[in-house]
Amino acid sequence: MSVSLKAKIAEVFEEPGCDINQGKSEKERKKGCTKQLSPGAAAGGCAFDGAKIALQPVADVAHLVHGPIACEGNSWDNRHSASSHSQIYRTGFTTDINELDVIYGGEKRLFKSIREIIEKYDPPAVFVYQTCVTALTGDDIEAVCKRAAEKFGKPVIPVNAPGFAGPKNLGNKLGAEAILDHVIGTREPAFTTPYDINIIGEYNLVGELWQVKPLLDALGIRILSCISGDGKYNEIASAHRARVNMMVCSKSMINIATKMQQRYGIPYFEGSFYGISDMSETLRQIAKLLVQQGADAELLDRTERLIEVEEARAYKRIAEYKARLAGKRVLLITGGVKSWSVVAALQEGGMEIVGTSVKKSTKEDKEKLKEIMGEGADAHMIDDMTPREMYAMLKDARADIMLSGGRSQFVALKARMPWLDINQERYYAYAGYEGMVELVHQIDRTLANPVWQRVRIAAPWGDDGETLGAVAPTASTAHLASVAAKAMGLEPEEVPV
Amino acid sequence: MAHVVESKKACTVNPLKMSQPLGASMAFLGLDACMPVMHGSQGCTSFGLVLLVRHFKEAIPLQTTAMNEVTTILGGYENIEAALLNIRKRAAPKLIAICSTGLTETKGDDVNGFLALARQKHPELADTEIIYVSTPDYVGAFEDGFKHAITGVVKSLVKPLPLVQDQVTLLPGSHLSPGDIDELREIIEAFGLKAIVLPDLSGSLDGHIPPDWRGTTLGGTSLDDIRAAGASSWTIGVGEQTREGAEALQAISGAPFQIFERLTGIEANDRFLMRLSQHSGRPVPAKYRRQRSQLLDAMLDGHFYTGGMTVAIGAEPDLLLAIGALLHEMGAELRCCISTTQSASHALLPAETVLLGDLEDLEQGAKDCDLIVTHAHGRQAAQRLNKPLLRMGFPVFDRVGNAHRVQVGYRGTMALIFEIANLMIEQIPHHHADDWPLTPEARRAALARTAAPQSMPPSPLAEASA
């Protein structure tokens, strides 16, 4: 591992914004916050995956992966992060190194690749991702990027997060570090307003940012930059001029928020767009902080009035489903989306949470969960559930529906139980007031489908295909033949006398 | 016929190719009660897993040795050992199938040595078969990984057995779906032969509801069947990629083999049925004589829409040949052929050149074509060019039913012809009144008024009689 990468990893393990991290001893902190992976029993992506997830939504940038074909060839074009402008982020660029590059080094190929991209596509910047093999053979991507940036007069940003550095979560942070080190603060915005904010850790999956943006627009709050959903390179480069930072997903890019506070004095808060009360709380926080930072205090009133209108409308729309959904038991297995914010939303719809995963939740998240779920919350918090246990739970009908990421969907479907996708591969947007109504609508649509009764019908025969009366006794069917014959006029009809 | 050109670009844009370990893992997924493992960083497995899930819409058992930087440099023995013990404990597979990745190949792990050592240290592993194949990411492509996996399974598990005359081994290429395998098995069985299929994705990834939850593959070629392949009287391979496996089988059991370079298209299937008939000593069943006749009719019905069309195809070698040759037979011109890796199949392709390239090359070449044929990643190019896309190969993540798409045999060929022809019917333009404007020259000529007609042009009739 290069010295710089080692130092970087040590740096992200020192997180002032994280209470758990600060509660650790110096020695413990150096180990980082993720458990050692266990071979043969591991799931989830690598650090490269994490860095790519965090940065790929920057839509006008060319994302170039330096490594063998697996890293990009097996993974590109697999997320639904949406863009309102450039589409170049959806183009897969890779150096696809071969055996000779492994032996002689791939730096020349990398440099040529950057040149080809700039000549053909002319993006405002190129992000170059390091991978395991090229890190192991010692390709110095930082040097190549520096040289290329000088030569082509364009930012070429090294993202040093090879897969073997650690899990996905570490990669999110290393990706964020690249943005901090090389992008933020390098441009000035055309103008600034007292209502400028950055949204950090929002990836605009299936366009969710656009469920929230109209609310901010209506209040006159400008998203100076979103890191990284629907992102533009120049906007992110000028993010240091915002008045307030909102941190969306607590574990993924907290280092951007804390370091921007240190470097530029921008206050941040942690909020969520998932759930009605969470959305309202987020709007309040944004308004409060902006006013603290010098915006006109009347923003607070306008925000409250907007919240009032939006909440009333959303609750009214959800209430229409309440009668059908009340008492339905939900098993919630989630990673990226915070458990507690979804739990609150489901309870608004009258549903009961019979279990929720807390594997990726922080201590704070767990406290919040307890607060929301009340007595007996502990019993419903699941640290690590094997697919077999999930299957058993659904099969025994201890839950009516499972909400989870795509990878565990078959656990539910094979148990012939309703399932709804709430992770990054989903097709529906669940943010803001609109999104919560949509989520409840989707749960209702799933549960109300008559297909569940149909797929649970047992075959009328046994496993051997014979028992349970599938094979009819070979009793006389002669009378049928005579009925048919009469019908066809081959035999005279019996006329009752 | 086609000669192969390698791309000169340094940067691959919109990859067509996927990696060897992913191909090997797909092959392993066709073995019963198996747990495939990638020896590499956990991302290698995670990416492959997501892609397989999105294509098959099935749970995919696929594990990782979760290598990190330190274990890579010190060597992966401990991770392999821990993975074997963990997998045996948690999923209890009958077979653990390991393939290497770019990371561990760059380091140069001696996995066969590791496995011998692990077996020595842990006698409890004796109840689990373990196989290993070398599949570095930076060499070859998906199809090569699949090929090496099959050869690896044959070499490690098949032993010579007394001949069973009516048993044959079928080696399907990676481009065949579970539905294709079912179709071929049905054909072979119609000749009174029993087929051992290796690997048998139709048992594991055909999308069925198992009675209980299993952490391993839900079906496929059982260990007993793999071993029993040593008794087969004949090996049938579909696609050049199966040649290596068929040769390995022959070296072990002496079974002769025949590689059908494709089983899409009428003539290839004629040969297939003919050989099955000769091998079994039975006539071609009426059912297939009828299907052949149906296919002939489908070709006649379809040719109106495929004749003269121009096509750009991006596919792995054997699939490229299967689809490309069929399109050629239906009157299409293969104007742009992109593939991923070297193969003897390319020599048979009725096109001028095959470029080992990416989807950027395909998009360039497709500009003046009527149809694009490639996997689901081609959707972006098709949208930009506003051209119809025929989704073929792996992955097809934006359609359901991939496991049951059949394109081999008479019936599968017929279905494919209908699919292509229907796509082209949708493209038939609706004409407008001003679609055929005259040239300015013609319009001027029509308007010109000359003082007096000099003379009538001589009539051809008069000339002939003169």
From TrEMBL, chain A:
Gene3D superfamilies per record: Nitrogenase MoFe cofactor biosynthesis protein NifE, C-terminal, Nitrogenase molybdenum iron protein domain
One protein family per Pfam: Oxidored_nitro
Source organism superkingdom: Bacteria
Pathway listed: Cofactor biosynthesis; Fe-Mo cofactor biosynthesis
Transmembrane segments: none
InterPro entries: Nase/OxRdtase_comp1 (IPR000510), Nase_comp1_CS (IPR000318), NifE (IPR005973), NifE-like (IPR049939)
Keyword annotations: Nitrogen fixation
Domain Nitrogenase/oxidoreductase component as annotated: residue spans: 46-447
Family statement: Belongs to the NifD/NifK/NifE/NifN family.
NCBIfam families: nifE
Function, in words: This protein may play a role in the biosynthesis of the prosthetic group of nitrogenase (FeMo cofactor).
The protein, known as: Nitrogenase iron-molybdenum cofactor biosynthesis protein NifE
Name of the gene this protein is made from: nifE
From TrEMBL, chain B:
InterPro entries with a match to the protein in the record: ChlB/BchB/BchZ, Nase/OxRdtase_comp1, Nase_comp1_CS, Nase_Mo-Fe_CF
Source organism per UniProt: Hydrogenophaga electricum
Primary role: This protein may play a role in the biosynthesis of the prosthetic group of nitrogenase (FeMo cofactor).
Keywords: Nitrogen fixation
Family to which the UniProt record says this protein belongs: Belongs to the NifD/NifK/NifE/NifN family.
Claim: Nuclease is one of the keywords in the record: no
Domain of life assignment: Bacteria
Pathway named in the protein's UniProt entry: Cofactor biosynthesis; Fe-Mo cofactor biosynthesis
PANTHER family in the record: LIGHT-INDEPENDENT PROTOCHLOROPHYLLIDE REDUCTASE SUBUNIT B
Protein name (record): Nitrogenase iron-molybdenum cofactor biosynthesis protein NifN
Gene3D superfamilies reported for this sequence: 6.10.250.1090, Nitrogenase molybdenum iron protein domain (3.40.50.1980)
Stretches assigned to the Nitrogenase/oxidoreductase component domain: 19-424
Gene symbol of the encoding locus: nifN
